[in-house]
Amino acid sequence: MRKVSFAEFGGPDVLHLIDAEEPHAGPGRIRIAVRAAGVNPVDWRVREGQVLGAHPVELPAGVGLDAAGVVDEVGAGVDGVEAGDLVFGEGASTYAEFAVLSVWARMPEGLTFEEAAGYPSVVETALRIIREVGVRPGQTLLVSGASGGVGSAVLQIARDRGITVIGTAGAANQDYLRSLGALATTYGEGWTERVRQLGRVDAALDLAGSGVIRELVGLTGDPRKVISIADLGAPELGVRFSGVAGSVPEALAEAVGLISRGKLHIPVEKSYPLADAAAAHIDSQAGHTRGRRVLVV
Length: 297
Prior knowledge:
Keywords: Cytoplasm, NADP, RNA-binding. By secondary structure, this protein is α/β, with parallel strands linked by helices. 28% of the residues lie in helices and 27% in strands. It contains nine helices and 15 strands. Strand 14, helix 9 and strand 15 form a beta-alpha-beta unit. The longest helix has 14 residues, at 120-133. 50% of the residues are buried.
């Protein structure tokens, strides 16, 4: 089978499409014929060799956590799923023609494989950081870097919970943020004053790692009310860096419920063939994404 792999840490050029042995589903696992794989910032952070305790790497290594596809192998002890079922979920080395999933759910009616592949890690992250930052219904949450996959999920989940959201993004994504129910403003010079004009900020999330931790602490008045998933230096300012996943099964169940109720939709901004994984990483690292990027197998 074809698989994206890297034998050394580095830039996108270390990614190579290789011929590899097919993985097989062990106990409690399923294997899918991958139709699409989600491209997440954690993928290129791991590729670069950033210290991420939740994702230890032994080289050479595959890439990717999220995927959607067709079940073709069911491991011992697995019930409720069989070959031919359409599922999405999380596993390992999902930038490949076949991948083993450790957590999965049936794809909601009406989703394409490309759309489904963009949800698992994104929704888990969104649910986790909303919980960790402690924002409650009736309060206001500021989301810095709000137009990407996690930001799109945070805005919609928070609004569904009765939380007011303020989102920052580039000028081209202002209408997109408003379509998700956010009060929107641009980043750049004077952005904190623009946020203050939109209302009080009770909690804040840094999703872009663009060096705004001090400003977010200033807006909330308390470093404990700020969470970052993108700035490894955040703890130096008393802000928690959230990088360890919570319950993916619970996240998938909530994602299915929200999607089925029409309360969550994350668009796919761009799809890439498996051979263009390096280009997908370059674009992901550049930011300014509206929704998700996925690889199509």
